[in-house]
Design goal:
500 residues, alpha/beta, six-stranded mixed sheet, 20 helices, 6 strands, globular
């Protein structure tokens, strides 16, 4: 009877994990998200129109690698699939692979379910980690770490697992430069285990021979060569090259911004659900600390637990010193790796402890409130329609070019990249110059007023081409931003008329 109960419980938890992933997909994927924007739209547009090697990094910058777009472009080209749906599926597939790699370190079904929720249905703070490349970067690193763990324990296939691990570490760094943080800390942890580790840990690490060190050096050379080649091939814009280390003043501003972000839910200054989530996490961590006893762990699990906690702290400290983080107004999405690493550490810690009812209840509270926080804005007080369904008029117009603000351009092109070619205006954040010129060559050209024009002028020049107003402005749909709902106004313009 107990065996049947265990089988039933396992099936139940894994069915729940699948349900979490599907719910996340139908809530936050490119094709379904109500707040889909131009930043996310770049992934769809690059998937449709991918060029090697210029597009090894995201349009207009020399960071933000594009393996997701490369894969999606392959399937779009071979099977002629919808770009936005294909991109959505590839994006979530890569994140799911990362989650399954984490299951090597988090074993209990209930804890795996909790990790699935914290990753795919995180509290509102970390929603952006799903939309952009941050979860993919962490997922690729976790796949690399899983393979590294296999390399430690394998005898016959050690070189193969090590090579695969190093390959995905390279992919992790290609996806986002900050992927070098966990790789560097892993190297630091391995060296520390060689020098200071306990005998069992030291024996595990020393299972690698001189041959494996040579393999690692060769992969390091190959990785550096590829990254340098990709960055040199990128057609980046000046507005997307700001990097470096913060000044003391910059670091203090970052810390202040972080403190304000933390104090907001503590003092109930933001949304109520976020404050409830913060205190549920605080209650759970307090229960965990109170329940902690000296528990025996295997040498491997002890090594990886220390790694997850250490690299999370290390990552937070390094990112605090980043000029890019400060200039971006301290976006929480950059701390996705630290957030998930701490979650994995805590869940691994739970597995070394005796299961207690109040710990289960406090963990369930965190999970339940996380789901509520993630879905609240999209589902309450009513279910919002996907952004791509809010502009049906664009689909009926045939080939059309669009010029608007950054936030009212690429996002429309992602609806149907074959027929809708959009660009920010020539004084805004133009990520792809060729796409800008292509938008002007379409048989119908629309200008979008929102966040750009006070009114539609009779004449205007864009990218050196004079334009003449044709007809009256009209509504093409309603765009929902984080804080407000805006009617999107457009007007048709004629191209190439004689300049006065």
């Amino acid at each position: 009877m107990k065996v049947k109960e265990n089988i039933f419980g396992t099936v139940f938890y894994y069915s729940a994990i699948v349900a979490v992933i599907l719910l996340s997909f139908f809530s936050f994927s490119y094709s379904r998200y109500p707040f889909f924007n131009s930043d996310a739209a770049l992934s769809v547009l690059m998937s449709y129109d991918y060029h090697f090697p210029a597009d090894l990094y995201c349009w207009g910058q020399d960071r933000g690698g594009t393996p997701e777009m490369m894969l999606a472009h392959f399937f779009i080209g071979i099977f002629h699939l919808s770009p936005i749906i294909t991109s959505s599926v590839i994006h979530f597939t890569l994140i799911t692979i990362g989650l399954f790699a984490c299951f090597h370190f988090v074993r209990r079904p209930v804890n795996r379910f909790a990790l699935s929720v914290l990753w795919f249905l995180p509290a509102h703070f970390f929603i952006e980690s799903i939309l952009y490349q941050f979860s993919i970067q962490f997922g690729m690193f976790m796949l690399a770490l899983f393979l590294f763990s296999k390399a430690i324990t394998s005898i016959k296939k050690k070189s193969l697992f090590l090579s695969l691990s190093l390959f995905f570490m390279l992919i992790n760094i290609w996806v986002l430069d900050l992927g070098i943080i966990p790789v560097f800390f892993l190297l630091l942890s391995v060296v520390s285990a060689f020098i200071f580790g306990k005998k069992k840990q030291e024996a595990i690490i020393r299972s690698f021979s001189g041959k494996h060190i040579i393999i690692s050096v060769l992969w390091l050379i190959a990785g550096l060569t590829f990254i340098v080649y990709a960055k040199n091939s990128a057609a980046h814009e000046p507005t997307h090259t700001e990097t470096g280390v913060n000044s003391i003043h910059g670091i203090s501003l970052t810390i202040k911004s972080f403190s304000n972000s933390v104090l907001s839910p503590v003092l109930f200054k933001g949304r109520l659900i976020e404050s409830i989530y913060f205190y549920s996490v605080l209650f759970f961590l307090s229960a965990l600390i109170i329940s902690t006893r000296k528990n025996k762990t295997t040498s491997a699990s002890g090594f990886f637990m220390s790694f997850f906690l250490g690299q999370a702290i290390f990552g937070i400290l390094l990112l605090t010193c980043s000029k890019q983080i400060m200039l971006s107004d301290f976006p929480v999405r950059y701390f996705t790796g630290s957030y998930l690493s701490i979650a994995i550490y805590v869940l691994m810690k739970l597995e070394t402890m005796e299961e207690k009812l109040f710990l289960k209840i406090s963990l369930f509270a965190v999970v339940a409130i996380s789901i509520t926080s993630a879905l609240y804005e999209s589902y309450f007080p009513k279910k919002l329609a996907p952004m791509v369904e809010d502009f049906p008029l664009l689909k009926t117009m045939g080939p059309v070019g669009i010029i608007g603000s950054y936030w009212n351009s690429y996002v429309f092109s992602a609806i149907d990249p074959e027929k809708i070619i959009a660009t920010p205006h020539d004084m805004d954040n133009v990520r792809n110059r060729m796409m800008a010129y292509n938008s002007l060559s379409q048989p119908t050209l629309l200008l979008i007023q929102n966040e750009w024009l006070e009114n539609f002028p009779d004449t205007i020049s864009q990218f050196g081409i004079p334009l003449l107003k044709k007809g009256q402005p009209f509504l093409i749909g309603t765009y929902i931003s984080w804080n407000e709902v805006n009617p999107v106004m457009a007007c048709e313009y004629l191209k190439n008329y004689p300049a006065p």
